[in-house]
Each structure stands twice: as C-alpha cells, then as structure tokens.
Automatic annotation (TrEMBL):
This is N-acetylglucosamine-6-phosphate deacetylase. The gene is nagA. Gene3D superfamilies: Metal-dependent hydrolases, Urease, subunit C, domain 1. It comes from Roseateles aquatilis. Binds 1 divalent metal cation per subunit. Transmembrane segments: none annotated. Pfam families: Amidohydro_1 (PF01979). NCBIfam families: nagA. CDD domains: NagA. Belongs to the metallo-dependent hydrolases superfamily. NagA family. One of its GO terms (biological process) is N-acetylglucosamine catabolic process. Keywords: Carbohydrate metabolism, Hydrolase, Metal-binding. Substrate binds at A140, N216, A217, R224, H247, L301, A302, G303. InterPro entries: Amidohydro-rel, GlcNAc_6-P_deAcase, Metal-dep_hydrolase_composite, Metal_Hydrolase. The keyword Membrane does not apply.
Length: 379
C-alpha cells in the first residue's frame, strides 16, 4: 500500500507539532515537524486541520438502532456508527441478563472481535458490565444480578475476549475475586455498588483498576461517609466518566478532573446513538430517546446517545479543557488503562488510528488502522 500523508497540527506524545504524519499498511511510519503551541492550533494564522489520536471508548452498549445484547450482526453495525464519530477502537459492553442471554451476545461478538469489519471501529473485546453487581444498585441494568465465579468468567471469556469486568466489591466473594481476575489477566472496574469507602479502598488494593461511570450507580460522597465516590476521588488513578452533561453535572466533572489523574471519557451509548427520537432496546429494557437523553419509563437515565466526537467538544468547548488534555481523556488514558501501548497516541509504530478535525472540532476525516472511514450519513 502506498504511504499516506496528512498535514496539519499533529498531537504527538510530546505535544503538538506543525508538520506531517505518514502511515502505511495500517501503522504510523513517520511524524515530523516543529513544535506548536495550543494557541497556534486554535488561533494561528494558518487554518490547518487538527490531527488527534482516534478515540477509544471502553463502554459501548449500542448505536445505529442496534444493541450489543442482540448478538447476530449487531456488532458490525454498532462499530461502523461509532467509527463515523471518530471512535477507532471500543469495548462492546453487555447488560446484566440471564447467563444464556449473555452467552448469546458474546457469540455474536466473536467474529467481530477476531476480524475488524470494513468501515468499522476495532472491537478490542468485551466489557462485561454485570451480572456481578449489587441488585440494590442496578441503575438501568435488568434485575438479573448473580454471584460471580472465576470459572464462569473464564467460560464466558472462551466465547469472546473479556477485557474489562465491572463488579460490586462488597458482595460475598467479590473482593477476593478481584485479585484472582487480575492474576488471570482481566481488568476490573468497581461499579453498580452500594459499597463503602473502605470497600473501594480494599478493592483498589486487590488490583481493581478503576470505576465504572463515576458518580452513577454508586454510593455518593458525604463528609462523614465518603462512599465509593470518595474512594475514587481519594485514591483512583483511572475512572470512566460520561461527559454528556446529563449523567454528571459539569461541576462534578471538574471535581473528578482535579482528583483523578487519568480520568477518561466513555459514552455508555445505547442503540439510540445516531438515531432519531423514539423507542429502542437496551438489553431486556425498552428505553426512550428524547430531549437528548435515554430513559426508562420511570425516568431513570439508561445509557446515553453520546458519541466520542461530542464528548471531545464538551470537554473543550463547555468545560474549558485544552485540546491536548481533552484528547488524552478520550483516547490515551483509556489505552493506557487497557495496557495498549500502540493505540491512543500518534507515534511511529502505533496503529494508524486518528481523527482530523477543523478548529470547531468537527470531524473532517477518520482513519482506523490505516483505513479512511466514509463519514457520510454519520447520524
């Protein structure tokens, strides 16, 4: 394949340069230029495009009208929708459900995890969000929480690769399981939990890496009972957050940004992402998209319609982050959390996963593993 060149303000691991990025056969081969400041990128006389690492989303339930739990051909459709919004790799995320339904969903992901469909984001593997959660803190999860065992998780992993598992550490056996899962190579997040601050600290000490959609579906911060949120703010290096400005108030996001060094963004997107208002599936639930959100009939937020390009714009245009910092929070930190040193950064040898944006942070081009994605009808 002929080498491809992209000129612009390129965000390298050392900061922005004004120069060129070259990629060939799916990998970045050259990044060259001279240093540029954030001011030049945003306000300089040369209206050059901005080139950032492709977005990485560790929490994707659906999109384009399809839900991960459907199995069958849902995964390629979901991955294509998110690629058209700049997500170059993702974790397909399950819902709490009877075990046979989870197995069905995983069987539908097997081929997509093995081979990236044309025009789609890379599905790195699976985020198992439940069923090993507290039934008293389901959020929008169906009521099928169950006890966890390492053997059961290994059996599920044999169907499709599990990269991330959310569990509630306060449930019997789960704290000990955290260490066993880490030894077996799985990453663990704390979520859907009624646990205390002490439960959170103990889980982190056992190897839990972060927190699932920080603030949502966990015990909140009180000055005498700091809860799971307090454990995250005091001790976590990594945590997910949903920056749609519905799930978490902008002020709370700012608190987390000051407290958690590698806070990273996820969409928690549902089948409603990229679709008009109406009813959609979320596991066994029927949810309604309206007024920019997705809710159960009782009004409970049930995932989102967020895409990662909008997450970036929210961080920069509404929360005031610099582009370089925001880019790390929609890409690099998630890659580091998953142990991926060849994604989430624009450097020779890394995958050619990148997004090209104008100064309004609107997508102009998306490249996944060297493939230019057709952005038409992005939804």
């Amino acid at each position: 394949m002929t080498a491809q060149h992209i000129d612009g303000f390129v965000l390298t691991p050392g900061g922005f340069i004004r120069g060129v990025l070259e990629h060939q056969d799916g990998r970045i081969t050259r990044v060259d230029g001279h240093a540029a400041t954030e001011y030049e990128v945003c306000h300089g006389a040369q209206d050059l495009p901005i080139v950032l690492p492709g977005f990485i989303d560790t929490h994707v339930h659906g999109g384009a009208g399809r839900d991960t739990m459907e199995g069958d051909d849902a995964a390629p459709r979901i991955a294509r929708l998110h690629a058209r919004h700049g997500t170059t790799s993702l974790l397909a995320t399950t819902m709490t459900a009877p075990l046979d339904e989870i197995r069905h969903a995983l069987r539908g992901l097997t081929d997509t995890c093995r081979t990236r469909p044309a025009g789609a984001a890379r599905v790195l593997g699976v985020h198992l969000e439940g069923p090993y959660i507290n039934p008293g803190k389901l959020g929008a999860q169906p009521d099928f929480a169950r006890a966890a065992t390492l053997d059961e998780i290994r059996d599920l992993h044999a169907i499709a690769p599990l990269h991330l598992i959310t569990l509630a550490p306060e449930l019997p056996g789960n704290l000990e399981l955290v260490g066993q899962l880490r030894e077996a190579g799985f990453q663990v997040q704390i979520g859907h939990t009624l646990g205390t601050y002490e439960d959170g600290v103990a889980a982190l000490a056992r190897g839990a890496g972060g927190f699932t959609h920080l603030f949502n579906a966990m015990t909140g911060l009180h000055h005498r009972e700091p809860g799971m949120v307090g454990a995250a703010l005091a001790h976590a290096r990594y945590a997910e957050i949903i920056p749609d400005l519905l799930h978490v108030h902008a002020g709370a996001i700012r608190v987390a940004l000051r407290s958690i060094p590698c806070l990273f963004c996820v969409t928690d997107s549902t089948a409603a992402a990229g679709m008009p208002d109406g009813e959609y599936s979320l596991g066994r639930h029927r949810v309604t998209k309206c007024l920019g959100g997705v809710r159960l009939p009782d009004g409970t937020l049930a995932g989102s319609t967020l895409t990662m390009d909008q997450a970036l714009r929210n961080l920069v245009l509404k929360l005031g982050l610099e582009i370089e910092d925001a880019s790390r929070r929609v890409s690099t930190h998630a890659a580091d959390f998953l142990g991926l040193d060849d994604r989430g950064r624009l450097a020779p040898g890394a995958w050619a996963d990148l997004v090209v944006l104008d100064r309004g942070l609107q997508l102009q081009r998306v490249v996944v593993e060297g493939e230019a994605i057709d952005l038409a009808n992005a939804g």
